[in-house]
Amino acid sequence: MSEPSIGLALGGGSARGLAHIPVLEVFDELGIKPKLIAGCSIGSLLGAAYAGGMSARDIRERAELLLSDRIGALKFAFGQKRINPFELLALRGLASLQVHGEKLAGLVLPDTLPSLIEELPIPFKVIATDFDMMEERVIESGSLVKAVGASIAIPGVIHGTQYDGHSYVDGCVTNPVPFNHVREGMDIVIAVDVSGRPREANGTNRSNMELAVGALLILFNQVASLRRVISPPDIYLRPAIDSFSGGDFFRIKEVIEQAQPAKDQLKRELEKRLTALTNGGT
Predict the structure, then answer these.
(1) Are 245 and 15 in contact (CB under 8 A)?
(2) Cα–Cα distances in angstroms (integers) from residue 119 to residues 15, 52, 136, 149, 253, in the given order
(3) How far apart are CA 49 and CA 196, in angstroms?
(4) For residue 53, what is the DSSP state?
C-alpha cells in the first residue's frame, strides 16, 4: 500500500495558535508529511511555513526568536529584517491605525519560502473572508504573503490585503477550523482547533473588550461545531490553551508546554490509524 494521504487543517486563534507548532512536530517525528494543508488566520501563517519546507523545529526556533520578548521582537523586525516601523502601519482614517497584514506576513515568514502558493512543496489553501461579499474565500494561488495577510486580518487590528477591489478580514469569521477543505481524496483528516473560549471573569463584571472578544469566540466555536456535525474529521484536537488570551504571543513557551498533551494525543491516534491503514483495516 502507498503512504496514506493526510489532510491537515490549522485553525485560527491568535497567540493560542502557537499550539500548532508541537502538533506539526508530530509529523516530523513520525517521518511523514501531510498531503494537503489548509490554514486560517495564524494557522495560515504557520501552515505556510510548514508547507513551504520548514521543519517544525525550525518554525519553533524562529517563533521563539521573534517572540522571546518585546525588545527581541523589535530588534528582529527593525534590525535583522531592516523594516521601517511606519511601513507596518496602515492609517485608515484619523481614528483607525492598524498593522498592515501583508507586510506583517512578510516580516514573520522567512525570505527562503517560495513567493507563490502554488510553488510550495505541500499543496496549501489559505482561508480568508471576503468582507464585501460576506463569504469565505479559499486562496490556492498567487502571492503567499498577500494571501496570509488577508487571512490574519483581525478586524480593527490588522488591515487585510484586497482582492478584486474587495476588502478581506480574518478567515475565522467564516471558517475557524477549515477541515472541510482538506477532506477530498484523503485517508485521514486532522483538524486543530485553537479558537479558545471566553475567559473566566476577573471579578463580578467583564469589561467591554472581554465581552466583545468573548462573543467572537462563541461565534467561532459555534461555526466549527456546526461544521463538525455535518462532516466530522477523523481526528479533532483542542489543545488546552483556553487560559491564554489572543495577545499572549510573548508567552510562547507556556503555550507550547500546554499543548504537549494534545501533541501526545495526536501521535497516539495517528500511529494507530496509520497502522490500521497499512494493515488494510479501518
Answers:
(1) yes
(2) 27, 8, 23, 18, 31
(3) 23
(4) T
65 CB neighbour count, 10 Å cutoff: 13
Q: Output the nine-digit C-alpha cell for 119.
A: 510553488
* 148 close to 44: Cβ distance less than 8 angstroms: yes
pTM for this model (two decimals)? 0.89
H or E element in which residue 191 lies: strand 188-192
* C-alpha–C-alpha distance, residues 182 and 187, integer Å: 10
Question: Among 245, 178, 189, 184, which Cα is nearest to 217's?
Answer: 245
Mapping DSSP to helix (H, G, I), strand (E, B) and coil, where does residue 204 land?
Answer: coil
Residue 77, number of CB atoms within 10 A of its CB? 18
Give the DSSP H/E element, type plus range, for residue 169.
strand 168-169
pLDDT tens profile 136-170: 999 999 999 999 999 998 887 787 788 889 999 99
Helix (H) or strand (E) holding 223: helix 208-230
Nearest 5°: the CA angle 149, 150, 153 is: 85
Given the C-alpha cell 494507530, which residue does it identify? 272
Residues near 250 by beta carbon (within 8 Å), at least 6 away in sequence: 67, 68, 69, 70, 73
Single-letter code of the amino acid located at 92: R
Residue 205 DSSP code: S
